[in-house]
Q: What sequence folds into this?
């Protein structure tokens, strides 16, 4: 599969890359004092872990190279009030993004709207680009789910 | 317009020479253009078609002046041009097959499917086009010729370009080279629309392969719904797993000092036995950990942390320096374990 020539580039790193990033993020999380104290509310911890999962997934999947990962990292950084700047690789993509030609069928427009709400950063994309991003997003999500499943299985009591 | 007038008057006049003059002008004007067109064009089967009208026009010159005969000759023009269709289809298919030779292997299958569909398209579409030309007057025929010439231009341009790629591959190039199929509209809007639709269909196929159980479904709407459901389920899974992780975490002692300070017995029994896991890591990692495990059997277990220095050549990762001081570290644990199991401490 990797050797086949595919003009639509949707390759995803191996599982250990994802695992590495996730564990790093978790460890960073744990060094925070607010995390490991027992009087912490569970919901906060859940939210933090969830955010850590998404951020690590975005980083593992290619950082700023993909649109969805870029917007994910932006959202996360905004919540931390950090100022994150990304370097724009291809400037000429922007005019395409602005001219979101949605003159498609009403069927695919409705579904495309729903996809845009689901996939991060889907607001400014054309439908074809959106579907590329969705494919990559699905691959990364499934990889992340596998990693987390392994982790949970290993940590849960027998 | 005046041509049609001349033709209409022909039946009344019955004078062949005026008609001959009109037809000659038509023929010469058309013929020259077409003869200029024909040599550079090597691509489609238009040569067969283009050679026909001049000959037919010559025949019309010699025909009788009745409109009935004109109608019949035009009709015979239509019927005569039918045999050219297989030739046209064959040439078109040959052309597109030649085009695919320049491509990579991965796209040949895609191209061949399009070529197999193209002849059928052309076959269906040429027939109405031909009947159209039969029914209308020669003026219409001339405008049709011009329309076909535009299509021909586009075909020539796409054939003479060095990159004979399908529109799927054209996203890498700054311009989209779209081959106009015979009988389809050729204004830029519909071409762009068609290119866009083909792009979307290609990506839809890709998504269908990703999502399990989507190949059986017909229709884009249901496939898209299925894709959306899949994405939502994946996101929900992430949330569920993060909840489970959060509940599992506080159970294990994270404190680095306690890990370092404690002896083998107490800490191991407390946290390690509860935290054994069998990871689905790649096989080589498992094997190296086996070798680790054997080494640790000989060493006293209090030397666990310097073990991390040994960890590096095994894992081959540079991030282990961070992990050396971290709580969550993949370590080979106590001696009571089965050698195939990897222990994990958080």
A:
């Amino acid at each position: 599969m990797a050797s086949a020539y595919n003009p639509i580039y949707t390759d995803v790193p191996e599982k250990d890359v994802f695992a590495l990033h996730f564990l790093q993020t978790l460890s960073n999380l744990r060094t925070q004092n607010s995390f490991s104290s027992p009087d912490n509310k569970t919901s906060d911890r859940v939210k933090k872990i969830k955010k850590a999962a998404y951020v690590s997934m975005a980083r593992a999947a290619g950082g700023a190279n993909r649109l969805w990962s870029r917007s994910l990292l932006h959202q996360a950084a905004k919540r931390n009030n950090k100022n994150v700047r990304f370097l724009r690789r291809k400037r000429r993509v922007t005019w395409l993004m602005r001219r979101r030609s949605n003159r498609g069928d009403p069927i695919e427009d409705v579904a495309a709207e729903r996809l845009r709400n689901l996939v991060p950063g889907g607001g400014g994309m054309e439908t074809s680009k959106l579907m590329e991003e969705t494919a990559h997003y699905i691959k990364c999500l499934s990889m992340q789910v596998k990693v987390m499943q392994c982790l949970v299985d290993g940590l849960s009591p027998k | 317009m005046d041509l049609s007038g001349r033709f209409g008057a022909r039946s009344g006049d019955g004078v062949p020479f005026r008609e001959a003059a009109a037809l000659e002008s038509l023929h010469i004007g058309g013929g020259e253009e077409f003869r200029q067109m024909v040599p550079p064009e090597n691509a489609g089967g238009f040569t067969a078609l283009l050679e026909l009208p001049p000959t037919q026009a010559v025949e019309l010159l010699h025909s009788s002046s009745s409109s009935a005969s004109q109608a019949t000759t035009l009709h015979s023009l239509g019927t005569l041009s039918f045999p050219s269709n297989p030739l046209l289809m064959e040439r078109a298919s040959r052309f597109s097959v030649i085009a695919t030779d320049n491509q990579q292997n991965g796209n040949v299958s895609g191209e061949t499917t399009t070529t197999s569909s193209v002849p059928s398209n052309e076959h269906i579409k040429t027939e109405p086009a031909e009947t159209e030309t039969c029914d209308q007057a020669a003026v219409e025929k001339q405008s049709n010729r011009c329309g076909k010439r535009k299509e021909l231009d586009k075909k020539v341009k796409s054939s003479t370009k060095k990159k004979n790629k399908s529109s799927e591959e054209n996203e890498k190039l700054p311009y989209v080279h779209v081959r106009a199929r015979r009988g389809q509209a050729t204004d830029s809007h519909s071409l762009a629309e068609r290119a866009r639709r083909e792009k979307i269909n290609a990506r839809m196929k890709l998504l269908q392969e990703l999502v399990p159980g989507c190949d059986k479904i017909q229709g884009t709407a249901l496939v898209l719904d299925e894709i959306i459901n899949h994405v939502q389920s994946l996101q929900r899974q992430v949330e569920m797993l993060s909840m489970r992780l959060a509940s599992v975490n506080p159970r294990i002692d994270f404190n680095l000092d306690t890990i370092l300070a404690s002896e083998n017995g107490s800490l191991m029994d407390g946290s390690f036995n509860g935290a054994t896991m069998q990871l689905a890591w790649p096989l080589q990692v498992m094997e190296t950990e086996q070798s680790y495990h054997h080494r640790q059997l000989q060493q006293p277990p209090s030397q666990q942390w310097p073990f991390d220095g040994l960890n590096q050549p095994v894992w081959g990762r540079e991030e282990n320096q961070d992990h050396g001081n971290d709580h969550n570290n993949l370590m080979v644990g106590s001696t009571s374990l089965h050698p195939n199991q990897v222990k994990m401490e958080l």
